[in-house]
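User: Some background: our group keeps a shared notebook of sequences we're curious about, and every so often someone picks one and asks for a predicted structure to add to the entry. Today it's my turn. The entry only has the sequence so far, pasted here. Could you supply the structure so I can complete it?
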Amino acid sequence: MKQDTPEGANGPAASVPVPTAAGGGPISHAIFRLARLHRMYAGQLLRRIGLHPGQELVMMHLWELGPQRQADLVRLLDSDAATMTRTVQRLEQAGFVRRRPSPTDKRAALIEPTAASQALRQEVERVWSRLEDLVTADLSADERTGALHTLERLERNLVQAAADPGTER
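Assistant: Of course. Here's the predicted structure to add to the notebook entry:
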């Protein structure tokens, strides 16, 4: 089975082979392919400013919310502790975050953005704008709104399925 993408204004259509076994889930297969490509392009753009995919999301939350406990970052980003530990360590080594003792919990440290990370913020915003332009090229404003609505609905469906103990996994 092949899934053909219509000819675009920027050149010939891409033809992506869809394995027969994925025939029962063409939307899921498309989401998988899209997510993989999105992460790849994000990685290329972020490498230019010294970040890896996911690190910019941590920084975005820190810039917006201020210092956070690592456990709070895990929850905010729906991550796991080991991944967040590595991410924070790498950001700390790069000089974008620092740890300081929590004034309310002697067992915890707060992760906070450094002054050096403030210059990075403009670059991250620029990268995300560029990524948005790549993803939504040739879409009208109405199509962008519709795509966002559909993606949000798909996400809600999965969140609901994950919260429902009766859902087959």
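Suggested note for the entry: The helical segments are 26-47, 55-65, 70-76, 81-93, 115-136, 141-163. Confidence is low (pLDDT under 50) at residues 1-13.
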